[in-house]
Structures are given as structure tokens and as C-alpha cells.
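hi! just following up on the protien thing from before. the input was this:
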Amino acid sequence: MPFTCLERFSTVADRYDVVLCDIWGVVHNGLAAHRAACDALVRFRAGGGTVILITNAPRPSPWVIHQLDRFGVPPAAYDGVMTSGDVTREVVAGRNGAVFHIGPERDVTIFDGLGVRFAPVDEAAYTVCSGLFDDTTETPDHYRDLMATMRGRGLFMVCANPDLVVERGNELLYCAGAIADLYGSMGGEVLYAGKPHRPIYEAALAKAAAARGAAAPAGRTLAIGDSLRTDIAGARALGIDGLFVSGGIHAEELGSRESASTAALAGIFANAGITPHAVTPRLMW
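and the predicted 3d structure came back as:
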């Protein structure tokens, strides 16, 4: 399937009423806002569009909104935020038993107010994975023995962030999805709370409909993101257009953060088995 290369979002913005926009890699890089992307979303909303920021961050949306403020993302750039942490909280609220948490201490806000009891792996009823304990030094290989222990006990895992890697500045760091995929490859049962799976999109579209007063048709809805595996695959599964930001986590693979050749793009799309509706190096108006 052919794809369109866009320099500016403004050339197609009037085709859409709702944008479901990825955050990390599109709106900011984990350290600071991408000003051009924020400006594009502000202008889209000023023209009557609705923007829901949708992220695999393993934290509740109020925490993410606070982070957006800290990075300099203007509130005028979005109507609402939906996180995989929000979906994870719904799953945890519906389950019983103690939790073994895999992830850094900063992620424990995902459990705030849920009355969760924590336990070590040999006593827990199930596992929630929000990331690596230390994503600056560890890789998924460090978790093989732990996954084998969990598999031996038949523990169910909730993956609070299905991303494999994330961009922090110019570095790529492993995420919870890499641990969950390892566990799944060993025969473990995993529920993925975020993109590309349907629950997070349904919740985001409900927020968009509430903001607009009515649901937008699928043909007037666009997903924007820098991950083929999550953002673009999620758009395809939902039956909506996907705009791929090539200057994000795939930039190194493509050989450029500023632009990528059509041949390079076609190659990674073929390898991924998915082609977006359109491609842009960076989101800008």
C-alpha cells in the first residue's frame, strides 16, 4: 500500500475532526517539548479539531499532565489525556490478591488510592510490570531468571506500558513491553494495557466524544505517533488513518532524524508488515 510524505500537517488537517496523538517522541522527547508539534496541535484545535493525547506511560493521566506542564507543553495543545496507566488502574481495581510490581519506584503512583497490597514474587497473586527497575543500566536479559520464576508459579502479568523502547533525549531505553514480550515468549500470560490494543483507544475516543459532544466518524479520526508497533498498528486495528513521525524512535534505523528516504521508509514498513497512511519527519503545522 502506498504512503504519502507530508512536510506539514496543515496540508491535511481539514480532513480530520479528532487527533489521537502520541506524546513521548512526538510532543516531547522526555526532556523538553517539541515546540513545532505543540504549535501544530494548538492550531488544529483552534480550527475546531479535538486532540486527545494518548500514551503508554504507566502512570495516571494527572501525573502525565503535570509532566507536560513541566516540559512546557501548553494546555491549549490538547483536550484530554489517556494513559496506559489509567487502563492498568481499571484492571487492578477489578482483581484480588497481592501484587508483585516490576518497575522503578517512581511508577508506584499507578496504584494510588487502590488499596493494593504488595508482595514478593514468591507470594504475589499476579504481577504488574511498569518498566525495568533501572532502565539506565538494565536490559531484558537481566530479567530471564525472574521471568522463569514467575512462569513456574503461573503468574498473570499486566503490562502497564507495551512500548519496547522509549526516547529520552537522544538515547533509547527499554520499557515494560520488552519485559512483557520476554515473559510471553516463555509462555506467560500477559495483558497489555496500552497501545496498540483496543481498550486504550476506546477510552480515548470516549474522551474525544465527550469533549466534542458527539463521536467523530472513523474516517475523520487520525492517530499520530512515532512507533510502527504501537501507534501505527493501533490505528490500523481501529480502522483509522495513521500519521507516522519518522524522526522518533525509528530515526536511527532510518538513518536520519530530519528526513528519511522513501526506500528506507518502505524497507522498515515491509519489515514491520504495516504501512501508515502518511509520513512526516516531525509534526509541524
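Residues 87-192 form a domain with the Rossmann fold fold (CATH 3.40.50.1000).
The chain is about 35% helix and 20% strand.
cheers
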